[in-house]
Write a structure and sequence with these properties.
By secondary structure, this protein is α+β, with helices and mostly antiparallel strands. The protein contains 18 helices and 18 strands. The protein has helices at residues 10-33, 44-67, 75-89, 92-109, 115-132, 141-157, 167-188, 190-195, 200-217, 284-297, 319-329, 366-374, 390-400, 415-427, 440-448, 456-468, 509-521, 538-551; strands at residues 234-236, 240-242, 274-281, 298-306, 309-316, 331-339, 355-363, 378-381, 402-408, 431-434, 471-477, 482-484, 487-489, 494-498, 501-506, 527-533, 556-563, 569-573. The strands form 5 sheets. The chain has a 6-stranded mixed sheet with strand order 15-14-11-18-16-17, with helices on both faces. The chain starts with 9 loop residues before the first helix and ends with a strand.
Length: 574
């Protein structure tokens, strides 16, 4: 049996994150089923799962980096990675609040993980989450978080003889306080009482705290109230019943929770039409003005983060205005707009029939996202240092709304992530083919030959062949002195990578790009694809086109603007 931790050290935080992901995976469907506030769109469990999955991926990346150096990561690095991962991957209202809770905890746990630090961390987290919400409402995850913190602090005050309670005692107290508060949420929020359910976001937080109990004690606590369609409501907290009506009986108004019930505002009236979410790079003073503007545009406003990076969530009728407000405040990206009536599952009766086939493609920048969208693909943007998690790919497959999906990961490092996403989608009845593209230019080549009218297998074979016939290269800037297959590079050198290996070391981008092209075209080629990063001047594309035209007969060149991407230049040769 593994030794139980005496404090929340790096390994314990890693275990907590992993167990929280497992717990939300088990309970995701049940939490989705009781989601009636702030919007009855049936996705709170999924959003929380995707948020924690992103946090888990960030934590695992820290441990993987240290394994290569044979060193152990510091606790501060792990808790900050967990918080950062949750921030960049937060989904929905509850996922955004959970990200702020983890951020609030990380600032304290980075300094220590004993019982005293945990009590303070829970208090800071609850306060930070409440401040992040424009108009806090009782009977929600905010209430559950506050109760967990109060119970943890109260346990210290009741310790016999003034002794400091140990970590296990505090964790148990926090979990019990959260569970009791969850059971009372239907009494505090009318829409929950009418539907006969507890708050879905609060239920998810209880699952996360339950994982913390299991981390420090080695045993999972008794599960909270179990609810779901067709499940008998479970009495909790002295017999009060919280759950869905037995057998899925209609609630007030004749609709099932999650079917056509717009209960965003506290009074239960119809809410805004769109959910808008994006990451934002901006200064604090700009974010303060952004909050004011977005608050006037809609409701369910939550802005979390700090240190120049923010996660914005709001429900509005004018999605364009919400995005424009972000542009004025700073640089928004990973923009996600959901129309509640047609995309989120909010009204299942108006969803269109799925199309026969779709393509889901991972792209490294906004420019290629627009190009692929115009070609009919559903896109997932991979930001520098922020690869998408499998849940994000599964979500994109769902958004594609097709019976058959071709998945193009466009990165060798995403092979296992994409495979996991494909397997999950198959369990949901979608036929998924994974074409193992290793670069964006291979994905472009595959998408160019995509024919949705031919047979699925034939289409996949043609796309795979086109990708395989495309050699790929990229330019990168060396961060430090190191050995490469082309020799020793110094910090600041321009590296030309062909098919993933360093083949050229140069002093500037134009000369290195020409050398890389010459190496690739020496083996022949008919088409050169150039994808320029946002900081690369257009004159470079003109110069490289001229270089190809002058030196290689019958070779065409096509240029795309990739926008904000990791590499200044991507090259493909077919």
């Amino acid at each position: 049996m593994p030794q139980l931790p005496d404090d929340l050290n790096a390994v314990a935080v890693r275990t907590w994150c992993s167990l929280a992901l497992e717990a939300l995976g088990r309970e995701r469907a049940e939490i989705d089923a009781i989601n009636v506030y702030p919007i009855a769109d049936g996705d709170t469990g999924t959003n929380l799962y995707l948020t924690v999955e992103s946090a888990h991926a960030a934590v695992e990346a820290v441990f993987a980096a240290h394994e290569t150096r044979a060193t152990a990561p510091a606790t501060a690095d792990v808790v900050r990675a967990m918080a950062h991962g949750a921030l960049i991957g937060a989904r929905g209202n509850s996922g955004t609040i959970l990200a702020q809770l983890l951020r609030g905890m990380s600032g304290v746990l980075a300094d220590g993980g004993d019982a005293a630090h945990l009590r303070l961390a829970l208090t800071r987290a609850a306060d930070a989450a409440r401040r992040a919400v424009a108009h806090p409402v009782e009977g929600t995850v905010l209430t559950v978080a506050a109760a967990a913190a109060e119970a943890a602090v109260g346990e210290a005050g009741e310790a016999a003889g003034g002794e400091e309670p140990d970590l296990r005692t505090v964790v148990h107290a926090a979990y019990a306080g959260a569970l009791a508060a969850l059971a009372k949420t239907p009494e505090q929020l009318a829409v929950l009482g009418r539907a006969g359910v507890v708050d879905a976001g609060g239920r998810g937080l209880v699952a996360v705290l339950g994982a913390l109990v299991e981390t420090v004690t080695g045993q999972a606590p008794a599960r909270g109230p179990r609810t779901g369609p067709g499940r008998t409501p479970a009495p909790v907290d002295g017999g009060s019943v919280v759950g869905l009506p037995v057998g899925g009986a209609p609630v007030e108004g004749g609709a099932l929770p999650g079917e056509g019930v717009l209960d965003c505002p506290e009074d239960g009236g119809a809410g805004p039409a769109f959910e808008v979410i994006y990451l934002l790079e901006a200064r604090d003073e700009q974010v303060a003005r952004l909050r004011t503007r977005l608050d006037a545009l809609g409701d369910s406003l939550v802005v979390v983060g700090g240190d120049g990076l923010w996660h914005v969530h709001v429900h509005v009728d004018d999605a364009g205005a919400a995005v424009e407000a972000g542009v004025e405040a700073g640089r928004p990206y990973r923009i996600r707009i959901t129309h509640f009536a047609t995309e989120s599952g909010h009204d299942l009766r108006v969803q269109a029939e799925p199309t026969q086939r779709a393509v889901v493609v991972v792209v490294p920048g906004d420019g290629l996202a627009g190009l692929c969208t115009e070609a009919g693909a559903t896109t997932v943007i991979a930001r520098p240092g922020e690869p998408p998690a499998s849940g994000e790919l599964v979500d994109a497959i769902r958004r594609a709304h097709a019976r058959e999906v071709v998945l193009l990961p466009n990165d060798a490092a995403l092979r296992h992530t994409a495979a996991a996403a494909a397997e999950q989608a198959r369990t949901e009845g979608v036929r998924v083919a994974l074409v193992p593209t290793r670069a964006a230019v291979q994905g472009i080549a595959a998408l160019a030959v995509h024919e949705p009218d031919r047979g699925f297998d034939e289409d996949v074979v043609a796309m795979t062949a086109a990708a395989g016939a495309t050699r790929y290269a990229e330019l990168a800037v060396a961060e430090r002195q190191s050995w490469t297959m082309a020799g020793i590079c110094q910090a600041g050198d321009i590296l030309g990578l062909i098919d993933g290996d360093v083949a050229v070391i140069g002093a500037d981008v134009p000369a290195t790009a020409r050398t890389v092209l010459d190496r690739m075209l020496a083996a022949g080629g008919e088409l050169v694809t150039l994808v320029l990063g946002e900081d690369v001047p257009d004159a470079l594309a003109d110069a490289l086109e001229e270089h190809v035209r002058d030196g290689y007969l019958a070779v065409d060149t096509v240029v795309y603007l990739g926008g904000h991407q990791r590499a200044p230049l991507l090259i493909g040769v077919e």
